[in-house]
Amino acid sequence: MFNIFNKKKFLIDYLKNLVDIHNHILPGIDDGAKTVDESIQLIKEFSEFGVTNFIATPHVMDNYYPNTPETIHEAFTALKNELKQHKDLSKTYLDYAAEHMIDANFDLILNESKILPLRKKYLLVEMSYLQPSINFNNAINNIGSKNLFPILAHPERYGYLHNSSKYATYKKNGIMFQLNLLSLGEYYGKETNKCALKLLDKGMYDFVGSDIHNMRQLNALKGIKITTKIADQIEPIIEKNIYNFY
């Protein structure tokens, strides 16, 4: 028998007014938007379903994307200036922080205050998808010593954690979790989707982010459909984004 409560709706229908705290829309400094024009295109597409508030979070990754507060601010300024030329995007709010890889260089930039927190309070961090960071626990402790709250980006994407008890341990240690919206579909694969739904069921997510890098990903996001149950689970998290970062 058909159950109306299992009828799926598009995920983007629930995202209006979301403050996107994880994205790669700043131009030319990582694997996200390559040009200012690409950045503008992404922002326009987001605005069509009601997302106009962004905290851009380019990668800070030693040997790959060795960004600094200066390089990130430069890209932010270039995009901010271009936005002024687009009256149809006048409601766009843009800020910047960074997504910090916990690598061999992380403790150095943390101790030298070369990190970029979200709202001067939360620090977005990630690990390699291949293996956990050797210095992860120490890095988390150091983040706390700086009176910052660590947010682990897309915990559902670390395959080596899927069958471990690490998630519960991380939460117990005060680490916040940020869900990638694309994980609510199968963009990253079935196992990532399965893990995301499991963590969602357990109420482990604190925030959500798009982690959008390009139009291909944004188009994939537009195509994701979710059940009423999932919608009910993510709506309070979206509200938490708005409350903490608007």
Tell me what you see in this structure.
The protein is α/β, with parallel strands linked by helices. It has one domain (4-245): TIM Barrel (Alpha-Beta Barrel), CATH 3.20.20.140. The protein has helices at residues 36-47, 69-83, 106-111, 136-145, 166-172, 190-201, 215-223, 228-245, and strands at 9-10, 19-20, 53-56, 59-60, 93-96, 99-101, 122-126, 149-153, 176-180, 207-209, 225-226. The chain has a six-stranded parallel sheet with strand order 4-6-7-8-9-10. It is globular. It starts with 8 loop residues before the first strand and ends with a helix. The mean pLDDT is 96.
Helix/strand layout:
Blueprint: E1 9-10, E2 19-20, H1 36-47, E3 53-56, E4 59-60, H2 69-83, E5 93-96, E6 99-101, H3 106-111, E7 122-126, H4 136-145, E8 149-153, H5 166-172, E9 176-180, H6 190-201, E10 207-209, H7 215-223, E11 225-226, H8 228-245
Parallel strand pairs: 2-3, 3-5, 4-6, 6-7, 7-8, 8-9, 9-10
Antiparallel strand pairs: 1-11
Give the CATH architecture. Alpha-Beta Barrel
For the CA atoms, what is the radius of gyration? 18 Å
CATH superfamily: Metal-dependent hydrolases
- The chain-level structural class is alpha/beta
Number of DSSP strand runs = 11
Briefly note the CATH topology name: TIM Barrel
Identify the strand order in the major beta sheet.
4-6-7-8-9-10
- What is the total number of structural domains? 1
How helical, in percent, are the residues? Answer: 25-40%
What is the distance, rounded to the nearest whole angstrom, between the alpha carbons of the first and last residues?
A: 43 Å
- What summary fits the major beta sheet? 6 strands, parallel
String of helices and strands: EEHEEHEEHEHEHEHEHEH
Number of helices: 8
Shape: globular
